[in-house]
Each structure stands twice: as structure tokens, then as C-alpha cells.
Design brief:
This protein is mostly helical. It is built from two helices and two strands. It has a two-stranded antiparallel ribbon. Strand 1 and strand 2 form a beta hairpin.
């Protein structure tokens, strides 16, 4: 059960990194150009936001499940 907690912390760190790619208003575009550091493609992109929300929800669910399993 300890592994799930570690995985959730790693995923949360990755999620924080991804949020760092958003605009000043917290919006995401369809693409990100790592060479220039600019958002590219359609903006704002609802599917990018939805993916981020679903990832955050999955991390929360994994954390909750891990806490329920601990004695």
C-alpha cells in the first residue's frame, strides 16, 4: 500500500509541473512549444483543462484509497 502513496506524490509533482505551463490566467492551450516556452495551437483548450482536472481527481482518489487501506 505504501507504493500507491509514493506514486500519488510523484503524480502530484508532475501535475504541479504541468500547471506551470499555463498562462498568467491559468489557461492552457492545445500545445506547448518547449523550445520557445510558448503556448501554441488553439487557446484556451477545454480538452487540456479537462485532462488536468481528471488527473487531479485520479490523484485525489488514489490518495483517499491509500488512506483507507492503512491500518
Amino acid at each position: 500500500m505504501r507504493m500507491l502513496g509514493t506514486a500519488a506524490r510523484i503524480e502530484e509533482a508532475l501535475l504541479d509541473l504541468l500547471v506551470g505551463y499555463s498562462s498568467d490566467l491559468g489557461l492552457l492551450s492545445e500545445e506547448y512549444d518547449p523550445d520557445s516556452g510558448h503556448l501554441a495551437g488553439n487557446f484556451p483548450q477545454a480538452f487540456s483543462h479537462l485532462g488536468l482536472i481528471r488527473a487531479a481527481d485520479a490523484i485525489r482518489a488514489a490518495r483517499d484509497a491509500d488512506q483507507l487501506r492503512r491500518p
